[in-house]
Amino acid sequence: MATQIVIHLLPHEIDWFEWQSKQFKLGSYYIEDKVIIDVTLNLNLVDWNQSQLPKQFFINKFNQIKTLWDWAETQFIVDEKNKCLGCDDKRREAIRSTTADNILYLDGDLTFRPELLSYMIEAAKLISHEYYIISPQTVRMWDSSWDIITNKNYLNTPANMETYYANDAFKIITETNSDIELKKIPQFKFGGGWFNLLSTKLLKLTDIPDSFGPYGIDDLYVMICCDIMKQKGYEIQQYVLDGSIVIENFKYRWNPYQDYLYLINKQDGFRKQAENNLNSEIQKFTNKI
């Protein structure tokens, strides 16, 4: 079984990608299956003429991190030609070109234990049908709709952003249980880059529409597509790895490059483009299946 890890990386996120790469390196000793690390360093959203650090600094560090992936097949791409402007661009390209069995999306600010990838791969081997999503659990977030993927130890904590942001991510990931269990959940719910493992056959069917542009709501789109598939009689299921927790690192996240890079923020415009095209793309998908 082959798994492709897909990451869109901005220059100021490179230190956290290094931390993640070390976690994966530690976990690699539990893995015998093929893993592909497919990561693009997006240099397009920085005005380098007004920045105090040169782009070559980040290219050099990116290439150094690559050495931590000597156990996997590597696709380390540096983009300066506006081909990859956001995570949707990266994920779309991966979906259309991959030959792996599964795709795993990862955001740069996610914390996780080293063994998690091996758990994901072994869990996928237990599933007999073609269309599936496997998600780790997390802590309680901003509303109760996320409780379906919340670890039971956190279901009684307040559902608000203040509590979520205050969590000690490193402490929480150490609370992973020794007994990990794959469980079905009754609905589809996941955050795009939160270490979700999706079957490639599912993603090749849903795709990420070109009309969405570089960034935004691809996870919502796939969830809605999954609901439609289920209504149409497809055998499709989301699972959680009960006892294995991931969480975004807000409390200890910092940007040491903040005063040295002149960032170009187009995120709101990108998201609006995707949102404006959501309903029409859902209708197209419904007609297709």
For the record, the count of structural domains works out to: 1
Q: Separation of termini?
A: 27 Å
Helical/strand content category: alpha/beta
Q: Regions with pLDDT < 50 over 5+ consecutive residues?
A: none
For the residues shown, what is the average pLDDT? 95
Q: Walk across the major sheet and give the strand order.
A: 3-2-1-4-8-6-9-7
Beta-strand residue fraction = 15-25%
Specify the biggest β-sheet. Answer: 8 strands, mixed
**Rg (C-alpha, Å):** 19 Å
Report the CATH architecture. Alpha-Beta Complex
- Number of β-strand runs: 10
Fraction of residues in H or I helices: 25-40%
The SSE string, one letter per element, is EHEHEHEEHEHHEEHHEEH
Shape estimate: globular
